[in-house]
Amino acid sequence: MSTAAPHGAPSDPFRLFFPLGIVLGVAGVSIWPAYFFGLTPGFSGRAHAFVQADGFLYAFVAGFLLTAIPRFTGTDVPRRSVQYALAALLILATSAFEVQAFAVGHLAFLAAHATVIVLAARRFRRRRQTPPDTFVLVGAGMATGLVGAAINAAVALEVLAPRWDTLGRRTLTEGMVLLLVLGVGGFLGPRLLGFAPMPTVQIGSVAPVKRRTSLYLAAAAVVIGSLVGQYGLGFEPLAYARAATVSAVLLPTMKPWRRPAASTTVA
Questions:
Q1: How far is C-alpha 142 from the geometric centre of its chain's CA atoms?
Q2: What pLDDT, on the 0 to 100 scale, is given for residue 150?
Q3: Which end of the chain is more exposed for a tag (fewer CB within 10 A), N or C?
Q4: Are 160 and 221 in contact (CB under 8 A)?
Q5: What DSSP string describes the chain?
Q6: Rounded Cα gap, residues 138 and 144, in angstroms
Q7: Is 86 exposed, middle or buried (0-12, 13-18, 19+ CB in 10 A)?
Q8: What pLDDT shows up at residue 199?
């Protein structure tokens, strides 16, 4: 009687950060039942938003990227001690947002995000194989998130005027997260749907084969520029440019008008 092989390794970051994300998500939505049942006199929608974005959502982002990037670069995952330190920063940020200590929360998240960037950059530098073309959008997304986190921290510390608040928040949700979805989904999406072959690992191959990096960089520039123009300068029509760019990246690969070619639960 055969047993299925375990998926991945016990040290894979998603095993820590995915459950953590669930816990932080529960913490984020707990303000609503607590208020409904009279356990708290009020609630802060702002605190809720940052707990969900910088805690719940980001835990899944960190868990996925720190598992996937080593796979795609042929490197090792971060040590458990590093993973625990990163998790502690996310817990600190979430706890601070819950009690509306926004300066502490934003500084903790900024440190957590910078840690993920350093871990990813080290693995890219030591890569033994080249990541997919679309992963340039992942890099752009992480850089965009760093700018957004810095803006949020600066507003909380009263270094920047409150008028920059919306740009900081939207740079994380409509900038970083959107670019990460495009970078990862643009590659894995068509493969999970059966429209393209699954990748094969070729350790030692770092030479680009057929690169479309410049096109993806142009798409990232439009997304980032539209955020600055819409939320920094107040030019709302740029939202349509962002939507058109996202569609142009995803439609040719995801083919939403076709039935999935793979008969799997994920597809």
A1: 7
A2: 97
A3: N
A4: no
A5: ---PPPSS-TT-THHHHHHHHHHHHHHHHTHHHHHHTTSSS---HHHHHHHIIIIIIHHHHHHHHHHHHHHHHT-PPPPHHHHHHHHHHHHHHHHHHHTT-HHHHHHHHHHHHHHHHHHHHHHHHT-SSPPPTTHHHHHHHHHHHHHHHHHHHHHHTTSS-GGGHHHHHHIIIIIIHHHHHHHHHHHHHHHHTTSSPPP---TT--S-SS--HHHHHHHHHHHHHHHIIIIIS--TTHHHHHHHHHHHHHHHHH-TTS--SS-SS--
A6: 10
A7: buried
A8: 62
Q: Mean of the pLDDT values across residues 68-76?
A: 91
Burial class (CB in 10 A: 0-12, 13-18, 19+), 241: middle
The pTM for the full model equals 0.88
Tokens of 18: 């995915």
- Mean pLDDT, residues 190-195 taken together: 82
- CA quadruple 229, 185, 58, 69: dihedral sign: negative
pLDDT digits (tens, 9 = 90+) for 41-54: 877 888 999 999 99
